[in-house]
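Quick one, tokens below:
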């Protein structure tokens, strides 16, 4: 899967390719340790989100306000993993953790 992840990163045509690769492989290792194995489509969507997340960190663009209650059913474990991934990118809003945790929950099979 690592070769395919590299291909998906290349296909992203990101302006932040090296940073994107670093964050994605950090996330890959972290998720693998937890036995969370996203499929190819989940990786593609996750890569797209992380690329947008890096863009926001560089440009200062912000996410719209989010009601934290909407994310109350996300597992504590997914939120903790999301926070670890966020530590790899500077200048992020804290509500970014909810969006990352959604990807993790989806890969766990907890949501569709």
């Amino acid at each position: 899967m690592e070769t395919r992840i590299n291909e998906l990163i290349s296909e992203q045509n990101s302006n932040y390719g090296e940073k994107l690769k670093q964050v994605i492989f950090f996330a890959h290792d972290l998720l693998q340790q937890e036995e969370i194995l996203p499929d190819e489509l989940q990786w593609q969507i996750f890569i797209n989100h992380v690329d947008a997340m890096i863009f926001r960190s560089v440009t200062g663009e912000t996410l719209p306000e989010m009601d934290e209650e909407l994310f109350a059913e996300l597992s504590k474990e997914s939120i903790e993993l999301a926070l670890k991934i966020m530590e790899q990118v500077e200048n992020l809003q804290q509500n970014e953790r909810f969006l990352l945790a959604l990807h993790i929950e989806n890969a766990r099979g907890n949501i569709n």
